[in-house]
Amino acid sequence: MNNYDSRVLRASKIGHPCNLNIWFSINGAEEIISEQSSRILELGTILEPVIINWLRTDGWTVKRNPIDSSSNQGISLSIEVAGGKISAHPDCVISGKDTGLIIADIKTMNDMSFRRFKREGTIKAFPNYADQLTIYAKALSNIGLSISELAVIAMNKNNCECHIDYFNFEPARFEVLRERAEFIFSCNEAPEQGDRFQNWCCDYCGYSHLCEHSKRDTTVGDIDIPSTDNQNISNAIELLKEARELATVGKDLEDEAKTVLDKEVRQQNIKSVRTGNIILVLNEITTSRFDSTAFKKLYPDMVKDFMKISTSVRYEIKNLQEAA
């Protein structure tokens, strides 16, 4: 691993949940990026000018900051902090007829991430993006450019839907990021993962081959958990994990839709409505259910007499760190 007199932390990295990942990055460690991740990044780069053209078509004034520094058109800024510097290369600055300058970053997302982004906003759904833009805004203000808002411009790769989420620059957020950067720069040895760490980080980390935390014991209690080379089992586990994630998202989406329909349809006493080829019909249903909780309280001994014991299997999905 190389040592640098003036180490650089990229703004896109500063919001990463793992201190170790950032520490490896600023110290020049080899990062192994999977072919799939490389393709995702490449696709995002290819789609950026397309999205910018769409913004211009919609009436936005866009000043793009090209990634290719050889064009001499892009700007690369930095913020000096104790121990090194934070580099910033904003995607673009946009402005509308009724807006000031907005520093914006362009992201492409899968359908699940995009829906969460629209529902929760940048700060809650993707705080690392908010951190990245906070650094951009501070760097631009340091050179005298007044930024009115920050924004993430996201495109759903499934259907090309776009959404812009706006939020304000928060000086307190920048101070937290500055302190975090200075702490990691000050570490002569690999630090702990930190209180922002999340278990999913290890699944996508390009430094796992160097990280001692990824070489952890897979024994849970007295049980040693074996690995498998059976592709059918691996595929089935991945499928089950994905299905449960989709079920969670589906429940959130259903609740979101019902909130709107309760207000706009049910409370207006509308019994049916059509949109395109889809018909929504409201049916009031009255059901009678056995109150098992009340029965157990009143007749606990009788419950035992009629209790039937059965055995089933529950498949539990855990990440390696959760299991260890």
- Mean pLDDT comes to 86
Helix content: 40-55%
For the record, give the distance between the C-alpha atoms at the N and C termini, rounded to a whole number.
Answer: 29 Å
- Give the SSE string: EHHEEEEEHHHEEHEEHEEHHH
The Rg value, from CA coordinates, equals: 26 Å
Structural domains: how many: 2
Strand content: 15-25%
The largest sheet is:
5 strands, mixed
What is the approximate shape?
globular
* Quaternary class: single chain
Please report the total strand number as a whole number.
12
CATH class of the largest domain: Alpha Beta
Unreliable stretches: 68-72
Instruction: Give the number of helices.
Output: 10
CATH topology of the largest domain: Lambda Exonuclease, Chain A
What is the CATH architecture term of the largest domain? Alpha-Beta Complex
Structural class: alpha+beta
What is the strand arrangement across the widest sheet? 2-5-6-7-8
Description:
- There is one protein chain.
- The chain is of the alpha+beta class and 324 residues long.
- The chain folds into 2 domains: 7-214, Alpha-Beta Complex (Lambda Exonuclease, Chain A); 231-323, no CATH class.
- 40% of the residues lie in helices and 17% in strands.
- It contains 10 helices and 12 strands.
- α5 (127-142) packs across α6 (171-186).
- The longest helix has 36 residues, at 231-266.
- The two termini are 29 Å apart.
- Residues 68-72 have low confidence and may be disordered.
Summarize the structure.
This protein has 324 residues and is an alpha+beta fold.
